[in-house]
Amino acid sequence: MKKKNTVFFKMILLMMITICWWKSVVISNASEKIGTVTLSIEKFTIGQGYLIEPTQVVLHEGDTCANLVKDILKKNNYEIEASTTSNGWYLSGIKNADNGTTKIPDVIKNMDTQVNGEDIIYPPDDTAKNVAYPDLSEFSYHRNAGWMYSVNGEFPNVGMAAWIPKDGDVIRVQFTVYGLGADLGSQYKDGGVRALNIANKEKLTKKVAQFNEQKGKWLNIYSASDRYNYAMEVLEKLDSKQWKVDDALEQLEQIMNKNNLTIAQIEEINKVKQKINAIGTVDLSKESQIAEARKSYNALTSEQKELISADTLKVLTDAEKKIVSLKAEKKTQDEAKKKAEEAAKKKVQQEALKKKYTPSKTSIKSIKKLKKNQAKLTWKKVKNATGYEVYQSMKKNSGYKKVKTITKNKTVTYKAGKLKKKKTYYFKIRTYRKAGGTTYYGNYSNVKKMKVK
What we know:
Ferric Hydroxamate Uptake Protein, Chain A, domain 1; 11 helices
């Protein structure tokens, strides 16, 4: 009897060991990692952005979309409402998912109405209310509202529990508010509303998830924050254009492809950008500062330079152009100032020379009538004059013309001939002096007249 009990005990022990081994094999297989997927929970159709931003999720053998979604919601402290339909497991609601800042995008407000027999269904507008607030569930804001999911940009026609994800998949759980997914770009056969043309955001969603995986690392790179925020803005705008999505992806990739840069190299990039941004208002006092910023930029490698944004580089190039312009302007001003100073100096010199060499004023002593309608003028000799100019007019205060230039200082008379009878003539004399190639003139003399009889 005792021997039988021993054998029985050994058999039980062997069975328990076998069961434990089998369970460990099953658990091991179930928990075996087979890849990674990108997962996000989105509320773009009500203007609330992400409930859960794009996240890299480990994919295990046997995982379904349903359990991945349930796990990430639970991890972020959200409770769910779910049901089973003919298509399988259905996410009917998420508790406390509505933040109360709803704004229906204009592109949804302007969608076509849905005609269902005599029933006309209009798209929601700013008066729409969430009957389940603060939960976000089916029928929130509209009778067509509810949660849908897409995999790699396609909306499966089976429930989440029936879809087995593959490594690299992008799974987006999205809230539809109108057209049974038409506002998400999905054309449901019974939706009755033409689907919107929504940009393909899968690659950018995946790239943002990868960024979020090591955000601290990427943000060490100057300007990465701006590019990441730009990518999020583009993603969260329901009707972003495809070129904008592609542009945001390219900008983010430029940052993330530079993961071979050292911390020291990243710090050099930051220092260069700081030097450029510190330039401020450009004047000539900033010339050396701008030159230093250029020198630091030129010292960067081509990879580092790619991480200096075009806008930042434009600040530097514009500053350099401004310096060139200011220097040219200063040169023009300096030349004009120099010319003005030289002109002023020359004027002073000329005034000094004029004062020194201008002859004294002479005076007409007499005017006498001679035969044959002639007149003889006599004036006072001026010692510092080279000669004299004789002017004649038939009016006292105007119309004078030079009639004679006398080149000898000692000659102080002049005979005026061919005078007309019964006419009155007026005369005046001006002294002149030549010095250094310049002629200096004295003031006019007194006026003398003579009437011809």
